[in-house]
Amino acid sequence: MKPEELKYLESHEWALMEQQGTDLIATIGISAFAVEQLGDIVHMELPSVGGSVTAGDEFGEVESVKAVSSMYSPVSGEIVDVHTAILDNLAVLSDDPYTQGWLLKVKVSSPSDKLLDFATYQAQCESH
């Protein structure tokens, strides 16, 4: 998937919205900009399948050699998949944050009203 196809939160999480049958599924991750800012990622906490997330609320934490940062959900809904294998190979986030570096899949009940398109998100990143 391409970064231009995604929606973003100002806090650097991304979402790819895909219709799967009658369900809208959001694949969620953190942006290349976030990974670059964090530096070497050493630990991550993710929620469990079957739980729920609320748009704008914290769903986990990412820890780097520089800082611990909360991750926020771009959508509300039920967690239907968690990329637990990434916890054993966090380098994937640096190598491929948009395809292999996904974190959660959520059956969407509602998206955040604060989602940005790629151009708006890029402009925000460049202003920091």
Give a verbal description of the structure.
- This protein is α+β, with helices and mostly antiparallel strands.
- It has one domain (about 5-110): RNA polymerase II/Efflux pump adaptor protein, barrel-sandwich hybrid domain (OB fold (Dihydrolipoamide Acetyltransferase, E2P), Beta Barrel).
- It is built from three helices and nine strands.
- The strands form two sheets. It has a six-stranded antiparallel sheet. A three-stranded antiparallel sheet has the order 4-6-7, with no helix packed on it.
- It is globular, with a radius of gyration of 13 Å.
- The mean pLDDT is about 95.
Mind telling me the CATH superfamily name? RNA polymerase II/Efflux pump adaptor protein, barrel-sandwich hybrid domain
The span between the termini is 25 Å
CATH topology: OB fold (Dihydrolipoamide Acetyltransferase, E2P)
Q: Bin the helical content.
A: 10-25%
Average residue-wise pLDDT: 93
Number of helices: 3
Q: Can you name the CATH architecture? A: Beta Barrel
- What is the CATH class designation? Mainly Beta
Question: Largest sheet at a glance?
Answer: 6 strands, antiparallel
Q: How many beta strands in the DSSP annotation? A: 9
Tally of structural domains: 1
Strand content: 35-45%
What is the helix/strand order?
A: EEEHEEEEEHEH
What global shape is seen? globular
Radius of gyration, whole Å:
13 Å
For the largest sheet, list the strands in their spatial order.
1-2-3-9-8-5
Low-confidence segments: none
